[in-house]
Design a protein that fits this description.
about 150 residues; mainly alpha; 5 helices
Length: about 150
């Protein structure tokens, strides 16, 4: 089976690089893989997939073997959820390519969301905590109509 690689959209490369801790940045993630997994989970949370317009040239696609078993599990779960077909887990090049394609689109959507949310932020870690906190509380509250009678 060919080793398919996870690609990053060229318009999201700078964001991905900024999110990874290095000597030049104080990003909240340790690896590009962690950024992509977080972004894919965020894209899936918002039920949003965005096709890659172009592939990054200055950042090599990520090898699948960089993804630990728990990260690979997310790729498989997203594929099954999206296709509703267990055959997507097949051990062949076509199924593998489909799983990666689905993951890439969810990750690209998540990166798009992050790009909008982090615009103008100085400290990405702090802003990410606010985003996560906001998402957590949004899930726990069922959308209700605002009732002014509670203020009387």
């Amino acid at each position: 089976m060919a080793a398919n690689r996870i690609k990053i959209a060229k318009d999201k490369v700078e964001l991905v690089k900024a999110l990874v801790a290095s000597k030049d940045t104080t990003g909240p993630f340790q690896t590009y893989v962690e950024v992509m997994v977080f972004a894919a989970a965020l894209g899936a949370k918002h039920k949003k997939r965005v096709p890659l317009e172009g592939v990054a040239k200055d950042l090599s696609p990520l090898r699948q073997d960089y993804f630990t078993s728990s990260f690979a599990l997310l790729i498989n779960l997203l594929a099954i959820t999206e296709t509703k077909d267990i055959k997507i887990l097949g051990d062949d090049d076509v199924a593998d390519e489909q799983r990666i394609h689905i993951f890439e689109e969810y990750a690209n959507a998540g990166l798009e969301i992050l790009q909008n949310e982090l615009r103008g932020a100085v400290d990405y870690s702090e802003r990410l905590l606010l985003i996560l906190s906001s998402e957590r509380f949004n899930d726990s509250l069922i959308e209700k109509e605002f009732d002014l009678s509670k203020l009387l």
